[in-house]
What we know:
By secondary structure, this protein is an all-alpha fold.
Amino acid sequence: MTPLKRPWIRVLVGAYRVLVLCMLVTGITRAQPADDAGGWNFEDEVEVQPTLLDLAKEQAPDIVLFLAFATLAMFSFLRKSVPLKYVTLVASVLYMGIYKSQLISVVNIFGTLTGNLPLFAHSMAWYAFATFTVVTTVLWGRVYCGRICAFGAFTQLIDAIVPKRFQLEIPQALEQRASYIKYGILFGAVGYYLVTHEIAFYRYIEPFWLFTFDATPVLWMLLGALLVASIFVRNLYCRFLCPLGAALGLLSNLTVFKIKRWSECSQCRLCEKTCEWGAIRKRQIIKSECVRCDDCEILYADEKRCPHWLLELKRKARGLGIGR
Ligand code: SF4
Ligand code: SF4
Ligand code: SF4
């Protein structure tokens, strides 16, 4: 008896032939042009690609909302209006934070360094946001930190309601040294990313996920500790730990429109004591630490509180011979 004569081999060979036949038939059917498909004449499906204008129209509400928010922020900044600044901070938490959950992040720095950024056609509002951040930083410094960033706005609002007696004054030498930690975190994170191409760790160095309310118990515990510490140390995360703040700080060394100072600022320390960001040393403004919060600029223009104006009045009075 030859092997083929065994019944189970015949069954196997038969099954194999049926399988090959099925594959051939399926392949041929797939290769059939549409108008030969069983006598039916289907029209080719034409996929219409949306134009850039179509995509812009689709994203228009997002872009308009961001531009409205940016206008409010810049209006409050240029007018040095304290009430409008707080309106902007609340809007930042509600709109940029809770509604959009859109913040510039250290991940965008990784993307910029490796050319891995969102597609423009689908992310126009994001590009408006990123362009606004870079342009305002070059023109005025860290306006983004002082007004736009939802996490910074959130901690500034906490500061505004925490009684001053809880807040610790950090010695200047310690504050200065601690401000370098954020640069260490920035360069460490960029170096780690460039070597490993891993980004999952960024949630441990940026608490911006807060507005998505989506995190592990460990992250929530770390955030809780950070927020409790922020009650005692003003703007703790922004001043000492934020890698994005460090990057914007480096960029803000290019600031075009600098904060003005009087010659009297060398002796007067009123602004230095007022600055909650540790960004003033006598007459000098440390651009990388300043978030353009307006506090010292309001003092600068205050004719009743700033000694420059009081001295100016005296000089004028002497010039007129009043009180001689
Ligand atoms: S320092 Fe960081 S967290 Fe603070 S406002 Fe700036 S970007 Fe936001
Ligand atoms: S209060 Fe006036 S003089 Fe004093 S530091 Fe501020 S701007 Fe200068
Ligand atoms: S007080 Fe002046 S120097 Fe300090 S953060 Fe505000 S704007 Fe900058």
